[in-house]
Amino acid sequence: MHSEQPNYTQVFLTFARNSLIRDMTFRWDFIIQAVSSLCWMLMNLGFYLLIFQYTKEISGWSKYQFFLFMATTMIINSLVQTFFMPNAAEFSELIRTGGLDFALLKPIDTQFLISFRRVEWASMSNFVFGLGLLSFSLWQLEVMPTWWQVLLFPVFVFCGVLIFYSLMITLAATSIWLGRNQSLYNFWFYITNFSRYPLEIYRGPYGSWLQWFFTFLIPVLVVVNVPARLLAQEMDRQKWGLTAFAVFAAVMSLLASRWIFQSALGSYRSASS
Question: Measuring CA to CA, how many Å separate 50 from each of 55, 58, 133, 194?
Answer without folding.
Answer: 10, 13, 17, 21
